Each structure stands twice: as C-alpha cells, then as structure tokens.
TrEMBL record:
It comes from Ferroacidibacillus organovorans. GO terms for cellular component: cytosol. The lineage of its organism: Bacteria, Bacillati, Bacillota, Bacilli, Bacillales. This is Methylglyoxal synthase. It catalyses: dihydroxyacetone phosphate = methylglyoxal + phosphate. It holds the Pfam family MGS. SMART domains: MGS (SM00851). Belongs to the methylglyoxal synthase family. InterPro entries: Methylgl_synth, Methylglyoxal_synth_AS, MGS-like_dom, MGS-like_dom_sf. GO terms for biological process: methylglyoxal biosynthetic process.
Length: 142
C-alpha cells in the first residue's frame, strides 16, 4: 500500500510516536510525507520515506497529485482543529480529493489507529481491485 503521512506542527510529535509504534507494519509499504514531518519520522525510525515540500510550500498539492493519479491508498493527516492554518484551502482540497477518489483518511490518532489495524488485517485489498480496474486498457471490462 502507498501511504502518506502529514501532520500540523502541534501534531508532529503524535505522528512520530505513532510511526514508531507501528514501524514494523509501515516497513512493508511505500511511504510519503510532507517535508518536516517526513524528516522527523526519518530521524526517529528506520523507515524509508519519500519526502515532498512542506505543506504550506506545496507538499499538500504534491500529495493531492498522487491521489488524483491513483498513486495513493491511505492518508494519515493529523490536523490541529483548534489552530487556523494559512494554507487551509490546500488542506480542504486535499481532503476533498480523498473523498472524490475513495481514499481512506485519518485526521486524528484514534482514526489512524483503526485504519492501520485494518491495514494489518488486510482490510484494504479492495484498493488493489480499484488499481487493477484503472489499469485496464480502454474498453476492456473483463
């Protein structure tokens, strides 16, 4: 599975701790992260992560492009709901893309825990069906 990890500044420590707790599970997946979040996870774990720009500098849109191209299966985006973000429109657009393309998204640790446990159990195999359908040649309905 292809998983993106994003966190607002006040939630970065939570996401780092989360990835430490589930490091063994994350090892078997393709990971992406926005700039500083990815750097902090890399420093705390042995995970391989493709890093993008920081969120306000375009990282949110880079992850959004993965979603639009069906190259992402799961988004964990720990948001701070009590702090206004200067790039809020980018955040809303990213979440909208998840809804449009049926990408499971967690915006808090409780939901991230549920999604990761589902990932561990193999509950996301339906994503492989979607990927396969989108890779079929035009007109091939199998």
């Amino acid at each position: 599975m292809r998983i993106a990890l994003v966190a607002h500044d006040s939630k970065k420590e939570d996401l780092v701790n989360f990835t430490i707790a589930y490091e063994r599970l994350f090892e078997g997946h393709e990971l992406y992260a926005t700039g500083t979040t990815g750097k902090r996870i890399l420093e705390a774990t042995n995970l391989h992560i493709q890093r993008f720009q920081s969120g306000p500098l375009g990282g949110d849109q880079q992850i959004g492009a993965l979603i639009a191209e069906n190259r992402l299966d799961l988004l964990i985006f720990l948001r701070d709901p009590l702090l206004a973000q200067p790039h809020e429109p980018d955040i809303i657009a990213l979440l909208r893309l998840c809804d449009v393309h049926a990408i499971p998204v967690a915006t808090n640790v409780a939901t991230a825990e549920i999604l990761v446990r589902g990932l561990w159990r193999g509950d996301f195999l339906w994503r492989d069906v979607i990927k396969e359908e989108q890779e079929l040649p035009e007109g091939d309905a199998r």
